[in-house]
Amino acid sequence: MDRPRKRPAERLAGRLPEAVRPVLRALRPRLPRSRRVQRRLFQAAVLGTVLALTPATWLRLSTDDRIRTVADVPDRDVAVVFGAGLWNGRPTPYLAHRLDTAAELYGAGKVRVVLVTGDNSREEYDEPDAMRTYLTGKGVPDDRIVSDYAGFDTWDSCVRAKKIFGVDDAVLITQGFHIRRALALCGSAGIDAYGVGVEEPHDGTWYYGGARELAAAGKAALDSVFKPDPRFLGTEEKGIEQALATAGD
Computed from CA positions of residues 229, 234, 236, 239, in that sequence, does the dihedral angle turn out positive or negative? Predict the structure, then answer.
């Protein structure tokens, strides 16, 4: 009678020193055999999924009635444009599209002043000044543009717009996948805001931005609850007040 053939792993184990064999057995993957354990693992996976999606659901439900187009957004004194990166010192295409929308709103008389908020944490990287230069090239007067040089993320930009620049109501301008988070955070910061979501082709950048928003929704929920101070708060500035006074001349 033929003896059953050993599997390769068994033949290898037979050639190993006796002291090593218990270690290999301990490292061997073991699947839960109990139906109770399997059920609990499934329930934990479902709960984890629900918890992960709850912030994104909150963003959608809390902002649905605040998203508008250029044509139907209510008039506001201030448009807030969030930074979206520079290439060789110039706005990236996504940032340029945000600024195009701001210029369109200004030209239509929907807003009177544009607050550009972005990153200037390094001397060689200056989002707000690049945004200002782009807007003036689109016909927005320089004295109707106010720069926030410490808008390091969406929460920081919203809090600083309220506490530093005195913005009480605004039109927020960013891409469609980001507009809900911007609206929710600025609302939590005390700004009565409507948002215009800039449409983009559904390319790789768009899908990356959408996926990133799922992860960022959790931080947004925490920021809304705990309301941390921005990385740099600073003192109050009169730029918006002065720009509105000029706009009233």
Answer: negative
Using an 8 Å Cβ cutoff, are 199 and 98 in contact? no
CA distance 236 to 160: 9
| 148 burial level (CB within 10 Å; 0-12, 13-18, 19+) | buried
* Interval 58-75: pLDDT, tens: 787 778 899 999 999 999
Q: Residue 143 corresponds to which tokens in the numbers above? A: 């004295």
Pick among 3.40.50, 1.20.140, 2.60.200, 3.30.160: CATH of 63-247: 3.40.50
What residues does 170 pair with on adjacent strands? 78, 193
Q: Which amino acid is at 52?
A: A
pLDDT at 50: 47
Give residue 35's pLDDT: 75
What integer is the mean pLDDT of 34-39?
A: 73
**Helix (H) or strand (E) run with residue 15 in it:** helix 8-15
Cβ(59)–Cβ(93) below 8 Å: no
Domains of the chain, residue spans: 63-247
Q: What percentage of the chain's residues is helix, strand, coil (to nearest 5)?
A: 55, 15, 30
Give the span between the Cα atoms of 41 and 64, in whole angstroms.
35
* The model's pTM: 0.79
DSSP 203-221: SHHHHHHHHHHHHHHHHHH
